[in-house]
């Protein structure tokens, strides 16, 4: 993508994570933007995201994302242990699939606070 997309917190985008190493999520998959509004406005062409998986591993910290506003066609789980920064060039569309619901955002926020030390 030649022009950076307009990002906002909690949007769901289709991202090409490339070849995984170890237990990383790889390939083309949805991800939730978890960077703050300030981070999303930085002119750095990078995004903080959490990749999604369609595999329910039964882990409490994997947050189910399946609200109609998410734009997903099947239930997915946010791997909150895998917060990562990616180039916006990895985003494969010019607009998001959708946005996480308020309930999903609340649960994501809770688990993301557990994952980082602040």
UniProtKB/TrEMBL annotation:
Keywords: Endonuclease, Hydrolase, Nuclease, Toxin-antitoxin system. InterPro entries: PemK-like (IPR003477), Plasmid_toxin/cell-grow_inhib (IPR011067). Transmembrane segments: none annotated. The keyword Hydrolase applies. One of its GO terms (molecular function) is DNA binding. Belongs to the PemK/MazF family. This is mRNA interferase.
